[in-house]
Amino acid sequence: MFGIDPLYWIMMAPVLLFSMYASFKVKSTFNKFSKYTTGRGLTGAEIARQILSTNGLSNVNVMETHGFLSDHYDPIKKVVRLSREVYNSKSVASIGVAAHETGHAIQHAKAYRPLMLRNAIAPTASIGSNLSWIIIIAGFIFGALGLVKLGIVLFSVVVVFQLITLPVEFNASARAKEILYSQGILSSNELAGVSSVLSAAAMTYVAAAASSIMTLLYFMIRAGLIGGRDD
């Protein structure tokens, strides 16, 4: 249905191209700075543990996880999970990613409001992400505008989640760079590399938000909520 709609591709093509570029950029930048070993010679796991300890977060564990750049902070189990490329590496790229994830742990400990809000709506956003498309498509097939509107409401929560994610990620990166600088963990040149890696990673979140917003606008146009009903 949507795949053969010219309007869908007109609206989505720019964000799809941007998403592809963002994905390429983060992988290429990470690979580039993975070749540079830091002067301190500490691994991503060791840096994460050091940052957590100096911030009074000895109760947060650091564990290795599978998947390329699958690094994340688990607020429920209070674990910083680092991919193998980050956990065991002493590269500038790995240190930047590890510090970024500890930034999320610090946000959690300090009850950073955007993070708390994102965590609160995460279950609803997950439901919306999985069910909204099914409900919207069913609504269009059966001509049930009420179903379409319900699906749009659910998908709106996904958009809100994506938008809240932006300040959460930007703040975690800012915390990471400030800590790496203030604690003298990296040199100025190494910090520039970290900044490049984290900026590239931020593009993927911007791309995800842009894609969600454009998709929501498309649904609203086709439902007649914007610009009149499309019959």
General description of the model:
Helix content is 71%, strand content 6%. It is mainly alpha-helical. It has one domain. It has a three-stranded mixed beta sheet with strand order 1-3-2. It is elongated. The mean pLDDT is 94.
Attribute tags:
3 strands, single chain, 3-stranded mixed beta sheet, elongated, mainly alpha, 71% helix, 231 residues
Rounded mean pLDDT score: 94
Gross morphology:
elongated
Radius of gyration, in Å, reads 20 Å
How many helical elements? 7
Task: Detail the poorly predicted runs.
Answer: none
Strand content: 5-15%
Helical/strand content category: mainly alpha
Indicate how many domains the architecture comprises: 1
Largest sheet data: 3 strands, mixed
* Straight-line N-to-C gap: 14 Å
Task: Please provide the ordered H/E string of secondary-structure elements.
Answer: HHEEEHHHHH
Query: Strands of the largest sheet, in order across it?
Result: 1-3-2
Secondary structure blueprint with pairings:
Blueprint lengths: L5 H28 L10 H11 L6 E5 L6 E3 L4 E5 H4 L4 H18 L3 H29 L3 H38 L5 H35 L9
Parallel strand pairs: 1-3
Antiparallel strand pairs: 2-3
Helix pairs in contact: 1-7, 2-4, 4-6, 4-7, 5-6, 6-7
